[in-house]
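Support request, please re-run this one:
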Amino acid sequence: MNVSSLQMARYQYQPKLPGMLRNGISEICVKNGDPTQSVDDQEKIKSLFPNTYGKNEITFQKGINTSEAKKQVVGVILSGGQAPGGHNVICGLYDALKATDKDNVLYGFKGGPSGLLEDSYIIFDDEYINQYRNTGGFDIIGSGRTKLETEEQFAVVAEVCKKHGITAIVIIGGDDSNTNAAVLAEYFAAHNSGVQVIGCPKTIDGDLKNEDIECSFGFDTATKTYSEIVGNIERDANSAKKYWHFVKVMGRSASHVALETALQTQPNICLIGEEVAAKKMSLAQITDYIADSVAARAASAGNFGVAIIPEGIVEFVPEFSVLIAEINELLAGEKADAFNELPSWNDKYAFIKAGLTAESMAVFEILPQAIQQQLFLDRDPHGNVQVSLIESEKLFSEMVKENLTARKAAGTYKGKFSPIHHFLGYEGRCAFPSNFDADYCYSLGYNAFMLIQYGFNGYLSKVSNLSKPAEEWVAGGMPITKMMNIERRHGHDKPVIRKALVELDGKPFKFFEENREKWAVETCYVYPCAIQYFGPSEVCDTTTKTLALEKA
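Re-run finished. Output below.
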């Protein structure tokens, strides 16, 4: 392995643990909290999880360890998209496991959940795991998006666990992955398998969040990475003074990443999908809003600016979401094959026009042709439009350009508009974890083993009080079922973890709302620069603006 100078230095970083986990394994005991219930649909969730529903939240504190002394053979998987800090979750899990009993064993199943199904694994040792401490990525064992959700799959997993004598499985993933963890935990409990399942909250998107899970790991590093890049773009814009930069940022449906990046950098425009939906804003209204900023800045600051566009913005535009729903229906089943066989775009356009309502066709017609065609790219596994593939940054810049052309013709705009487009996604998913994520993830892994040692099943590793120094963090666990509700998916009721969207009455959005009018016209850019690993604590050990505002 070729190792950079920074990576060598990061190997030496010792992640900080919550105070109660620093006492040593023998001095950690459990404090039981209140029984729990799901966030909604309590009776339905209870009926689906009779063996794991309603358990108590717990915290760890200093005291005599009363857990059963036995050899633990633990399996771990990384599930879903990469997020900075995943390696440290595994390192923390490994260190706690070995500190408890040097004969304990940790299996790493390769390629995500499919590794469990295919019995593809490695057994971790010091030499191997030390190569990955405080590093980004999921390459320690790889990841995958296979879902564990059928009885047949559970039976295979049970056989693999029996074969290796596995006592517990730790699933590191997002909302869907931890939903699968809850279902697998229920299966093991119902079949008296003796295997526990513990989840860890991962996603850069920030949508695995609630009153208990203050932050999913990876969000801190990813948003700081994007903020560094946006700050660099802002500085270039302020230097050249002739370009408008439209920057789309990853984040799926929620706008947490966009909001945090805006709080860090203070761009001229940042769209928040949840606000667009709440106000039922049309494409035309959004376009006017951006064009107003362009025009105002042309008259004062100059012909330059920066706009942040969340990845899933089009899902929140009511007229666009209706259009997408109609397109999904238009291309359902065999109709997609008929559409794809049409020889030209003109033929396909006629097919589309015949199949859409007049209202949706009116929306479709105002879209740039490139965006129109993107709506008909390869579908997702369920046959739906992949909204993440829509270049919404280009959509809005093109519509703004047309809007400004009309204003110029009317004599109300005299500036110049030259857009440049960026998409920030993979740049942040595997960055070296910030100090916060290095500490947080290591704590989640260490804490996950304590949950295993005390016999908990169907729990999420929980570390809270994150806006304080690590010494004051609180470690414990919560039943995954507490986060669940019933949603209609693909014609069936499914138990799922409720996604957390940006709260429009929350302090982070309110702070943004109070300042954005000034940012839209004036040049108030902040340049965060690179994530600082070494230096003053106020630079390298800070949490996200979102978390700081929420806990203020």
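The first strand starts at residue 28 and ends at 35. The chain has two domains: 29-207+433-489, 219-429+506-550.
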